[in-house]
Amino acid sequence: MSFMLGRTAPQPVRIAFALMLSALAVHLVAGLAGYGELPLFAAWVYNGVELLAVAALVARVVLVRRQRLVWALLAGYAATTTAADLTWSALAVNGELDAGGLPDVLYYAAYPLAYAGVVLLLRGRARWFTPALWLDGLVGALTLASLTAAVVLTPVLASSSEAGELVINVGYVIADVLLLCFVGLAAGLSGWKPGRSWALIGLSLSSAAVIDAIYSYQEATGNYAAGSVLSTLWPAGLVALAFAAWQPQRPTSLDRTSLAGAAMPVLFAAVALAVLGAAHWKTVTDPAVILALAALIAVAARGALTYRENLQLLRHTRQEALTDALTGLGNRRQMTRDLEATLAEARAGRPSTLAFFDLDGFKGYNDAFGHNAGDALLHRLASALRAATAGTGTAYRLGGDEFCVLLPGAIGLDAPAVQAAAAALRECGNGFRIGASLGLVSLPDDADQAARALQLADERMYANKDAGRASAKRQTRDLLMQVLGEREPDLRRHTDQVAAHAAATARRLGLVGEAVDEVARAAELHDIGKLAIPESILDKPGPLDDAEWNLMREHTIIGERILLAAPALAPVAALVRASHERWDGAGYPDGVAAAEIPLGARIVAVCDAYDAMTSDRSYRRALPHDEAIAELRRHSGTQFDPAVVEAFATTIPAARFPTAV
Q1: Is 535 helix (H, G, I), strand (E, B) or coil?
Q2: Which residues pair with 438 in a beta bridge?
Q3: CA nearest 74: which of 165, 253, 204?
Q4: CA 417, CA 426: separation in Å to the nearest integer?
Q5: Mean pLDDT to the nearest integer, 77-106
Q6: Which of the listed CATH numbers 3.30.70.270, 2.30.30.240, 3.40.50.10840, 3.30.430.20 matches domain 332-470?
Q7: 335 CB contacts (<8 Å, ≥6 apart)?
Q8: What is the pLDDT of residues 553-568, one digit of tens each?
Q9: How far apart are CA 58 and CA 340, in angstroms?
Q10: Rounded to an integer, what distance in angstroms lies between the CA atom of residue 521 and that of residue 526?
Q11: What strands lie across the sheet with 402-408, from one edge to the other?
Q12: For the segment 449-484, what is each residue's pLDDT rounded down to a tens digit?
């Protein structure tokens, strides 16, 4: 029982439901056994079940505030129906009662209460209903009405001899048809997945209508037998309604892609066609035919609406496929399509320009403020870029922090449209500065294929970005070198000489470009950590004691920390830290050996040792070049990398006089 009721149902209500189910079972068994006409079952058990159902519904109205008016109306429907049954039991003689009496008045009075309750339930869900759902409900309502009219109305009209009896019997059919219409409408509006409470309400009301229809049909054809199993189904409908009242309330969601949503209109169309087909073989009332035709028209309208919705969905899907979800700009796919079209026009004599932007500082902003703030920044910049290019070009977001703009005409970096786009991608605030590196490609002069245009724009953008980074790196290096020179002028001469030797040796070993520059910078700055070492230790004329040596060995770590303060010098910082490691692993600060030591650090170690040996010291004279080379070779394989020593030995004549690097 507990799984059928919500947790809010009190114990007396649970007991009432247990009694209802037990009594229904007794009534059903009595009907099957042929004792259904006995007063004990036909009146006492039958009406007792209905009274318990009404009591459960009234308790729901009194104890639960949610949807109180709805359940008050449905409780009124159940109470009025029960009152009609009680009146009929009291007034009937030998199971017969003339039409038009008080029971009929009460039965008719129950219908409007049921209609009103269902309408209020529908109003509570109205915000979820779409035109398609309304059409589904209409299809269900018209088809059920058509079927009922075809099966029941024809024999009722044929059997009723007196005008008063005919009106009453036809009125019941019409009232039941309307009830089925409301149930069908509610089922369709729920996407044919109404949930437990709505399903029980629909079962209760539709079963009442169907049982009434069967009763009317059997009465009209003379086949009705009092006390049969059919009699159990009337109070069972009220029990289902009482169960619906105490169902747990769960959030409702509509699945508009369910199989039922597609299958039910087809099923109802088949039923409507069956009614029309039956009209050719036997007598079917005109209302049934009209309702069946109306149902088919509603099915056709539903199909047309489905076609329209699918077209809209297809357009929306295409739009989503070509639009960046975060910024609303065209995405890479859209840009590629437009670029192909632009290139076709460019080859026909209408040149254009592709501007490729990559944000500077965005990663740091994301790390500092979080991804949500980063997304918000991208949205703001994209909006600014869209506004800046409106009327002059088309903006796109390719992904991440990359943006692109297609502009008409062959224009340069100083063009107002390019400058406006670049300005739109700048933003400054407390603790951050965002800009953009730019790569510009003229179409078709620089590239006449989309892939080549994007590749070239990307290459030029990164060249500009690297130039900016190199400028920042150069400024930081110059600052540190100036500080080093102010502290110890001779140390500056030493680092310059080591840098020249290191660059030449790096090239001899096959390094190129940025790698050579990093080795040279590391050679220049490998002693920057000595700024933190006392002059008394640096200038001590005699040997250092253990404590002084421990402090001196810290200068590579200090140098790394100083350089890491400038992100552009991070690769150089790693070389500085390892510049006093030894090939045999006996160096400092990490004790790494052989190839574990970065190649740039191995080069700096050899060049630093050579320059130290060939320079005068307060405690000794400088060694000649040949003796210094011999000393390097003597320690090759222990202190120094043998390959670096040999490369240095063959390079040093060309590097004896340093050149700018």
Answers
A1: helix
A2: 357
A3: 204
A4: 15
A5: 80
A6: 3.30.70.270
A7: 396, 398, 404, 406
A8: 888 899 888 888 777 6
A9: 72
A10: 8
A11: 394-399, 402-408, 352-360, 432-443, 427-429
A12: 988 898 888 888 877 775 555 555 565 666 666 666
For the purposes of burial, counting CB atoms within 10 Å of the CB of 253, is it exposed (0-12), middle (13-18) or buried (19 or more)? exposed
Separation of alpha carbons 65 and 6, rounded Å? 15
- Cβ atoms of 146 and 279 closer than 8 Å: no
User: Which structure tokens are listed for 559?
Assistant: 């140098």
Burial class (CB in 10 A: 0-12, 13-18, 19+), 471: exposed
Distances (CA, A) of 644 to 500, 505, 651: 15, 8, 10
In whole angstroms, give the CA distance from residue 616 to residue 643.
Answer: 27
Whether 65 and 40 have beta carbons less than 8 Å apart is answered as no
pLDDT at 506: 92
Strands (E), 516-637: none
Angle at 437 between CA 434 and CA 442, to 5 degrees: 145
258 has a pLDDT exceeding 60: no
Nearest-CA neighbor of 418 among 445, 392, 447, 454? Answer: 392
Q: Which residues of 411-427 are buried (b: 16+ CB within 10 A; e: fewer)?
A: beeebebbebbbebbeb
Query: Angle at Cα 251 formed by Cα 245 and Cα 254, nearest 5°?
Result: 105
> DSSP of 60-71, one letter per residue?
HHHH--TTHHHH
Nearest residue to 202 via CA among 185, 188, 183: 183
End-to-end, the C-alpha distance of the chain in Å comes to 89
Distance, in Å, from the CA atom of 66 to the CA atom of 120, rounded to the nearest integer, reads 13
CB 626 within 8 A of CB 472: no
| Fold held by 488-655 | Hypothetical protein af1432 (1.10.3210)
Residues β-bridged to residue 358: 402, 437
Length of the chain, in residues: 661
pLDDT, tens only, 306-331? 777 777 777 776 766 788 989 999 99
Let me know: does 46 contact 84? Beta carbons within 8 Å.
no
pLDDT value at residue 132: 65
Phi, then psi, of 369 in degrees rounded to 5: -115, -10
Peptide bond into 658 cis (omega under 30): no
Average pLDDT over residues 285-294: 78
> Tokens in use for 549?
């040596």
Q: Considering only CA atoms, which of 187, 213, 210, 203 is closest in space to residue 238?
A: 203
